[in-house]
Design brief:
Elements: H1 10-15, E1 23-26, E2 30-34, E3 42-48, H2 55-61, H3 63-79, E4 85-88, E5 104-108
Antiparallel strand pairs: 1-2, 2-3, 3-5, 4-5
Helix pairs in contact: 2-3
This protein binds adenosine monophosphate and zinc ion.
């Protein structure tokens, strides 16, 4: 059922403590941890504890939790003292999504190109 932990989901395993992560923030509904393959000096992932395959599915099913994710992205940026940063929701494999549990990338600490690649 949507929202329930999936046995084969990497990020559900991180939420459940079955795989270690460098957690920087946690709330009742979210976890934020450092990306294992950072693409910027700050690269933190903010995920909902509930399983939904992408950010849009989360927005449709549980919009308040998507708001929690975005608010926590801002808190990460504040903790990391980032004046400018990028919040990215890769959606679909063609856009680079590799983990199908909704997550926001918080990227900062270097210059950013526009448009993104
Ligand atoms: P995406 O490609 O948008 O689905 O993002 C998935 C992200 O998860 C990538 O940036 C990976 O580097 C990151 N990632 C994969 N496994 C782990 C892990 N065990 N701990 C932290 N980050 C991870
Ligand atoms: Zn999951």
């Amino acid at each position: 059922m949507a929202g329930e932990a999936q046995d084969d989901c990497l990020f559900c395993k991180i939420v459940g403590g079955k795989i270690p992560a460098t957690v920087v923030r946690e709330t009742e509904t979210t976890v934020a941890f450092r990306d294992i393959n950072p693409q910027a000096p700050t690269h933190v992932l903010v995920i909902p504890k509930v399983h939904h395959p992408d950010a849009v599915s989360l927005a449709v099913a549980e919009p308040a939790i998507l708001a929690d994710v975005v608010r926590e992205a801002g808190e990460v940026a504040a903790d990391e003292k980032l004046d400018s940063y990028r919040i990215v929701f890769n959606t679909g494999s063609g856009a680079g999504q590799t983990v199908f549990h909704a997550h926001a990338h918080v990227l900062g600490g270097r210059g950013m190109q526009w448009p993104p690649g």
